[in-house]
């Protein structure tokens, strides 16, 4: 039942915020903050209490730490079926944490229609938590689409209209149409899977575990896999399908960007890991070279285009594309180490991108511009803000001691045995990452100052926000083991899909974790 | 007449009797509120009678066949007529001129719809169709001192008459081919060989009925008539009238295993694809809410034609579910337009700029319109999603990939204008023009009905089992 509460609390909190607006600004914001703090504490409490290192029973599929199931639409065997395992818990904690940040970072930025803003913000988070928990394919699709609507409103109503023709409504509509149309492709795939299952057993079911058992012809499996892949690829985003991302980021308010980069992109990686790979293991394996190629393309494309951007937020958006390229490579490499690296990299990117977006929001509050051409020489004018900026830049280019380094290292290290050339090529992408990160730093903070008047430094709220992200990035960069322990069982399941011949041996599954421990002791 | 047949006929009898009673009442004394009350009472009784009719079906008479489809369509027709009647009360309050006759026309049209949805004989088909269409001319041109309303009425009259002529000619040709007027036997007669006359007859029949459904390429009247007609008349046209025609068309297809030759399916597939794409594409540049809804209905019936192409398995159930979802969403959308238009006389308030920033003045009314738009777009948590889910499921099950692709493409295009309407409601611009629903809209009958419909859209979107059960049970009861 606690799983239902995890979804209901932000949902109800949002409604409350809407109605409490008449009491004034502070109560509204406080309610939103308290809601997200409760959500965060609940998920942390679950993390502390539950044991995620359950030994997976052979052949019995995934093991859930918690489950909730009631019949929903009997006609098609659809259940309201929520389940929690290590991976989903980690991502829910991330969602709740970034939710708190999103509320905090809009504290001064959003001044109009605060109640409705927080309604949308909290509903996005509720939808995302639903995506991470849903284990019935219909329910998953339901939340997948549901989280788009408030995001649309967030961008369209509180976003910033850029220059010539780049309106916030246009960006929001583009975002919505991209994701909704690709989502319908996924719905077609889900239905194809369900009817294939119906044809062989005579029963309708949307249950994840039931559908895992479906036997499909290779052709059908390939097409259905592609439907899922495209839906997730749009959201991740993978390069030919990324058109919505820079616009959406550039036009969104800070809280929207934080949610978008930090959480919404992660739902796609989660979907690939949870659904696309396990449901179609053979087809995915056959598709892996293409997916990795797309990942490589993303790394170079994102890096190259980032260098040429004039808008801070567009800049960061393109670096996101590059980082997600690594995630895609890691997911399709299939090695246990790389898959664990994907989890770390997802969190690391969520924190570093959120940090950078919040910082650019703070910069905007002081300078009232996002254009790089109007910045420069800010290092001495802003108190401690440039220091944080430097840290997040370093994190995003993958300096050791930050979580990004751990993630990228594990992904590359784990992928090397299966696809050495991909890893070699991707490693050069890291050089580009250094280039674009330093360009950004240089253009914002160094160079000749435009004026000598000091700007307002960080207040305690902003300082605490930044410090908490920094602490998390360093913690994960130095000692990621608790995180790895939590997701190990889940990722091991995924890993096993890629070696169909070998029977799972209990000793083997412990090995990747041990290898990581060794690696870290050696360093 | 056996008892079962009497029970099955009862809703029609009640509606017709109410029409007569209201007409006589008007002759005696003009009382708007009393007229509305009498019409609503009659329609509620008819709805109850329809629920009883459900218990006795299937019942067949020489002209009419009361199967599950007819009962389901009847329920929808009566419910939407009821909503129209209640909304008309709010709408016509500020109307200058005779108000009461509108309800007579409305009730006659409803009776025609009931007959049409249940007909199994070409004679009852024609009588039903004309009884449905004739009052609509009057209803559309009801505000005849408005140029657009008059234009809408006359446009619909001329084009509808042409379509009826096509229909009659088609019937004549089919009779020439088979010597039969009962639909089932007629279709069976075509079994022996379609022949030139049969082919032409079916084609002309399709033209006639396609016109009423505003399927592309017979859609040209739709936007103008939607825009010009008074709100309640347009609402009736968009919901009850289309439901009746579609129910008939589905019965035609289900009872004609032969005619489902490949050519007919190909033609229907082509019509469906054209409607989905053209409807959605033409809506993109519109800035009038009623026109947008008109184009949107073209697209929606394009989607629904899939049920006719497949015409087995899930088809009847899908039709039922989709018609319910479509009617609910459309009623909610038009309900808001009517409420906003009802305070002032004159043309309807349908241009989008009137709706700018409505949310900040009328949050709940805006919520209704938002829900309606999202439902028409097929977003989860609204009933429209369940309908779209069913259609895609039907297409995937029958492996009609072109049509599935058409739905996806159409939905993607459609999102653009649904979202545009939605976001307009939330924008605030200085100097916006204020035309608004009355302050107490939420506690008046029209407002309550619109709110109830919106709540139903959400509730059935979250828990669709009752709706699915209804469609499944009724879709299963068919007479071959």
From TrEMBL, chain A:
<feature type="transmembrane region" description="Helical">
    <location>
        <begin position="86"/>
        <end position="107"/>
    </location>
</feature>
<feature type="transmembrane region" description="Helical">
    <location>
        <begin position="181"/>
        <end position="200"/>
    </location>
</feature>
<feature type="transmembrane region" description="Helical">
    <location>
        <begin position="462"/>
        <end position="479"/>
    </location>
</feature>
<feature type="transmembrane region" description="Helical">
    <location>
        <begin position="114"/>
        <end position="135"/>
    </location>
</feature>
<keyword id="KW-1133">Transmembrane helix</keyword>
<keyword id="KW-0472">Membrane</keyword>
<feature type="transmembrane region" description="Helical">
    <location>
        <begin position="260"/>
        <end position="280"/>
    </location>
</feature>
<dbReference type="InterPro" id="IPR001750">
    <property type="entry name" value="ND/Mrp_TM"/>
</dbReference>
<feature type="transmembrane region" description="Helical">
    <location>
        <begin position="30"/>
        <end position="48"/>
    </location>
</feature>
<feature type="transmembrane region" description="Helical">
    <location>
        <begin position="286"/>
        <end position="308"/>
    </location>
</feature>
<keyword id="KW-0812">Transmembrane</keyword>
<feature type="transmembrane region" description="Helical">
    <location>
        <begin position="385"/>
        <end position="407"/>
    </location>
</feature>
<feature type="domain" description="NADH:quinone oxidoreductase/Mrp antiporter transmembrane">
    <location>
        <begin position="134"/>
        <end position="431"/>
    </location>
</feature>
<dbReference type="InterPro" id="IPR003918">
    <property type="entry name" value="NADH_UbQ_OxRdtase"/>
</dbReference>
<feature type="transmembrane region" description="Helical">
    <location>
        <begin position="220"/>
        <end position="239"/>
    </location>
</feature>
<feature type="transmembrane region" description="Helical">
    <location>
        <begin position="338"/>
        <end position="364"/>
    </location>
</feature>
<protein>
    <recommendedName>
        <fullName>NADH-quinone oxidoreductase subunit M</fullName>
    </recommendedName>
</protein>
<dbReference type="InterPro" id="IPR010227">
    <property type="entry name" value="NADH_Q_OxRdtase_chainM/4"/>
</dbReference>
<dbReference type="Pfam" id="PF00361">
    <property type="entry name" value="Proton_antipo_M"/>
</dbReference>
<keyword id="KW-0560">Oxidoreductase</keyword>
<feature type="transmembrane region" description="Helical">
    <location>
        <begin position="315"/>
        <end position="332"/>
    </location>
</feature>
<feature type="transmembrane region" description="Helical">
    <location>
        <begin position="419"/>
        <end position="441"/>
    </location>
</feature>
TrEMBL record, chain B:
<comment type="similarity">
    <text>Belongs to the complex I subunit 2 family.</text>
</comment>
<keyword id="KW-0830">Ubiquinone</keyword>
<feature type="transmembrane region" description="Helical">
    <location>
        <begin position="292"/>
        <end position="311"/>
    </location>
</feature>
<keyword id="KW-1278">Translocase</keyword>
<keyword id="KW-0813">Transport</keyword>
<feature type="transmembrane region" description="Helical">
    <location>
        <begin position="125"/>
        <end position="144"/>
    </location>
</feature>
<feature type="transmembrane region" description="Helical">
    <location>
        <begin position="69"/>
        <end position="90"/>
    </location>
</feature>
<keyword id="KW-0520">NAD</keyword>
<dbReference type="InterPro" id="IPR010096">
    <property type="entry name" value="NADH-Q_OxRdtase_suN/2"/>
</dbReference>
<keyword id="KW-0472">Membrane</keyword>
<feature type="domain" description="NADH:quinone oxidoreductase/Mrp antiporter transmembrane">
    <location>
        <begin position="119"/>
        <end position="413"/>
    </location>
</feature>
<keyword id="KW-0874">Quinone</keyword>
<feature type="transmembrane region" description="Helical">
    <location>
        <begin position="233"/>
        <end position="254"/>
    </location>
</feature>
<feature type="transmembrane region" description="Helical">
    <location>
        <begin position="6"/>
        <end position="27"/>
    </location>
</feature>
<keyword id="KW-1133">Transmembrane helix</keyword>
<dbReference type="InterPro" id="IPR001750">
    <property type="entry name" value="ND/Mrp_TM"/>
</dbReference>
<feature type="transmembrane region" description="Helical">
    <location>
        <begin position="401"/>
        <end position="420"/>
    </location>
</feature>
<feature type="transmembrane region" description="Helical">
    <location>
        <begin position="196"/>
        <end position="221"/>
    </location>
</feature>
<feature type="transmembrane region" description="Helical">
    <location>
        <begin position="323"/>
        <end position="343"/>
    </location>
</feature>
<dbReference type="Pfam" id="PF00361">
    <property type="entry name" value="Proton_antipo_M"/>
</dbReference>
<comment type="function">
    <text>NDH-1 shuttles electrons from NADH, via FMN and iron-sulfur (Fe-S) centers, to quinones in the respiratory chain. The immediate electron acceptor for the enzyme in this species is believed to be ubiquinone. Couples the redox reaction to proton translocation (for every two electrons transferred, four hydrogen ions are translocated across the cytoplasmic membrane), and thus conserves the redox energy in a proton gradient.</text>
</comment>
<feature type="transmembrane region" description="Helical">
    <location>
        <begin position="364"/>
        <end position="389"/>
    </location>
</feature>
């Amino acid at each position: 039942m606690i799983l239902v509460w995890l979804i209901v609390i932000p949902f109800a909190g949002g409604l409350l915020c809407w109605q409490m607006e008449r009491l004034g600004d502070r109560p509204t914001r406080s309610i939103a903050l308290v809601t997200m703090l409760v959500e965060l504490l609940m998920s942390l409490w679950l993390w502390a209490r539950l044991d995620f290192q359950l030994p997976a029973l052979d052949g019995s599929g995934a093991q859930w730490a918690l489950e909730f199931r009631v019949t929903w639409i009997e006609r098609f065997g659809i259940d309201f079926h929520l389940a929690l395992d290590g991976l989903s818990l980690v991502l829910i904690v991330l969602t709740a944490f970034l939710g708190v940040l999103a509320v905090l970072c809009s504290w001064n930025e959003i001044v109009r229609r605060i109640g409705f803003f927080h309604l949308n913000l909290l509903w996005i988070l509720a939808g995302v938590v639903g995506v991470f928990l849903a284990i019935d394919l219909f329910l998953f699709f339901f939340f997948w689409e549901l989280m788009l609507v408030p995001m649309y409103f967030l961008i369209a109503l509180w976003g910033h209209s850029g220059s010539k023709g780049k309106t916030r409504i246009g960006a929001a509509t583009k975002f919505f149409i991209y994701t909704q149309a690709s989502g319908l492709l996924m719905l077609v795939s889900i239905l194809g899977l369900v009817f294939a299952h119906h044809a062989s057993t005579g029963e309708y079911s949307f249950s994840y575990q039931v559908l895992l058992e479906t036997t499909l012809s290779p052709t059908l499996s390939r097409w259905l896999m592609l439907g899922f892949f495209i839906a997730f690829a749009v959201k991740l985003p993978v390069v030919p399908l990324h058109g919505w991302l820079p616009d959406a980021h550039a036009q969104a308010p800070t809280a929207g960007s934080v949610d978008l980069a930090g959480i919404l992109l992660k739902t796609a990686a989660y979907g690939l890991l949870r659904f696309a790979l396990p449901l179609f293991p053979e087809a995915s394996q056959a598709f892996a070279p293409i997916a990795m190629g797309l990942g490589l393309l993303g790394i170079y494309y994102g890096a190259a285009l980032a260098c040429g951007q004039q808008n801070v937020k567009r800049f960061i958006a393109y670096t996101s594309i590059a980082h997600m390229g690594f995630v895609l490579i890691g997911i399709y490499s299939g090695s246990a180490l790389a898959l664990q690296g994907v989890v770390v990299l997802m969190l690391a990117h969520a924190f570093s991108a959120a940090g950078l977006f919040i910082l650019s929001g703070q910069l905007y509050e002081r300078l009232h511009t996002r254009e790089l051409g109007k910045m420069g020489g800010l290092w001495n004018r802003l108190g401690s803000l440039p220091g944080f900026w430097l840290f997040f830049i370093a994190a995003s280019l993958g300096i050791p001691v930050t979580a990004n380094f751990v993630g990228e290292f594990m992904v590359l290290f784990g992928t090397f045995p299966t696809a050495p050339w991909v890893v070699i090529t991707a490693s050069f992408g890291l050089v580009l990452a250094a280039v674009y990160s330093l360009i950004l730093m240089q253009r914002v903070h160094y160079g000749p100052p435009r004026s000598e008047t000091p700007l307002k430094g960080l207040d305690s709220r902003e300082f605490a926000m930044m410090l908490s992200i920094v602490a998390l990035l360093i913690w994960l960069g130095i000692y990621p083991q608790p995180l790895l322990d939590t997701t190990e069982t889940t990722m091991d399941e995924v890993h096993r899909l890629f070696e169909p011949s070998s029977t799972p041996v209990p000793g083997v599954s412990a090995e990747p974790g041990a290898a990581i421990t060794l690696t870290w002791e050696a360093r | 007449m056996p008892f079962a047949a009497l029970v099955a006929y009862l809703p029609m009898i009640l509606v017709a009797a109410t029409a007569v009673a209201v007409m006589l009442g008007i002759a005696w004394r003009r009382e708007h509120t009393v007229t509305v009350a009498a019409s609503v009472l009659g329609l509620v009784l008819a709805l109850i009678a329809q629920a009883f009719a459900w218990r006795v079906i299937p019942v067949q008479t020489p002209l009419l066949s009361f199967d599950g489809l007819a009962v389901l369509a009847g329920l929808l027709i009566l419910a939407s007529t009821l909503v129209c009647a209640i909304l008309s009360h709010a709408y016509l309050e500020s109307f200058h001129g005779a108000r009461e006759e509108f309800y007579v026309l409305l009730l006659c049209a409803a009776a025609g719809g009931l007959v049409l949805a249940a007909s199994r004989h070409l004679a009852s088909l024609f009588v039903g169709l004309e009884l449905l269409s004739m009052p609509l001319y009057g209803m559309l041109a009801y505000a005849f001192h408005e140029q657009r309303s008059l234009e809408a009425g006359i446009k619909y009259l001329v084009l509808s008459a042409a379509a009826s002529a096509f229909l009659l000619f088609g019937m004549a040709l089919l009779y020439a081919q088979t010597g039969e007027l009962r639909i089932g036997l007629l279709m069976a007669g075509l079994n022996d060989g379609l022949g030139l006359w049969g082919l032409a007859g079916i084609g002309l029949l399709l033209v006639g009925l396609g016109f009423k459904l505003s399927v592309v390429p017979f859609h040209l009247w739709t936007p103008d008539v939607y825009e010009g007609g008074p709100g309640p008349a347009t609402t009736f046209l968009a919901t009850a009238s289309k439901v009746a025609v579609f129910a008939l068309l589905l019965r035609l297809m289900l009872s004609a295993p032969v005619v489902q030759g490949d050519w007919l399916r190909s033609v229907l597939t082509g019509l469906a694809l054209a409607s989905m794409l053209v409807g959605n594409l033409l809506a993109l540049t519109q800035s009038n809410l009623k026109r947008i809804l008109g184009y949107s209905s073209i697209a929606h019936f394009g989607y629904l034609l899939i049920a006719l192409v497949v015409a087995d398995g899930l088809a009847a159930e899908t039709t039922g579910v989709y018609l319910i979802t479509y009617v609910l969403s459309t009623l909610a959308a038009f309900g808001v337009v009517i409420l906003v238009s009802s305070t002032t006389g004159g043309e309807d308030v349908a241009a989008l700029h009137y709706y700018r920033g409505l949310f900040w003045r009328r949050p709940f009314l805006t919520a209704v319109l938002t829900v309606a738009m999202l439902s028409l777009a097929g977003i989860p948590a609204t009933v429209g999603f369940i309908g779209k889910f069913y259609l895609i499921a039907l297409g995937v099950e029958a492996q009609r990939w072109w049509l599935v692709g058409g739905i996806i493409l159409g939905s993607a295009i459609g999102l653009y204008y649904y979202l545009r309407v939605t976001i307009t409601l939330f924008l605030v611009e200085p100097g916006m023009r204020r035309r608004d629903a009355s302050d107490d809209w939420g506690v008046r009958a029209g407002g309550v009905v619109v709110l109830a419909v919106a709540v139903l859209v959400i509730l059935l979107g979250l828990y669709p089992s009752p709706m699915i059960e209804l469609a499944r049970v009724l879709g299963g009861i068919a007479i071959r």
